[in-house]
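QA checklist item 7 of 12: single-chain prediction sanity check.
[x] sequence parsed
[x] length recorded as 271
[x] structure emitted
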Amino acid sequence: MDTSNGREAYPTDLSDAEYEQIEPHLPQRTSQRGRKRVYALREILNAIFYLLRAGCAWRLLPHDFPPWQTVYGYFRQWRKNGTWEHLNTVLRMELRQAEGRQPEPSAAILDSQSVKTTETPGVRGYDAGKKVKGRKRHLLVDTLGLVLKVVVHTADIQDRDGAKLLFNKVKGCFPRLQRIWADGGYAGALIEWVQTTCQWILEIVQRDPTVAGFHLLPRRWVVERTFGWFGRYRRLSKDYEGLLETSEATIYAVMTHLMVRRLVAAQPAGP
């Protein structure tokens, strides 16, 4: 199959229906001044989603995409103006409604994931518990596993302190949110802090010590599945980014690709 620009399609390319879901939420030009756009935004998105899934460097993008400098320039611009987080928000709300849920969640699940960094310059730390030198992704997801907020910080920051960084950014953003589930690493003084500062209930889901081996824990498996979704995108196998903000934007971009495909798949077929 060929795309509109004549190149052979990649599995990560957006379909017509998927791009129609994203296009209204992309920044629009407000002035006719300046150079005219040479490359279609759809091709820019296709190049970004290819890079996220394939895990290649920006300079190694295939030559049938727009120049890597142009693609990276758009990714960076959309990080700085909040477009990636905005796309994550609007697509999450649309997908929740398509699943018969309220647009805003009333419950969420919290967890973190420590990942190694590379030789790319940037801050990092050592997670003694996981024995990982790198960074930690702190994730808050709804009961469908869709990302509400992500905060990336150095891996040496304890889970309870990292959770406070995330909660301070989320506070006031979700008026229906009442309850958050988390594992035993968040027990202790954080429970009272969340109740006092954010007016939420932080409920700890404990592992049954009498059960040997792996067993599925209520609620907590949802966020673990989200981390599993990240595994499909090789760009997230490590933290390759120089800035923490870029690491966060990369996760929002991955979720944009995942959700728009799920959203279009959930729509009834036309006549």
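[x] summary fact logged: The chain has a mean pLDDT of 92.
[ ] second reviewer sign-off
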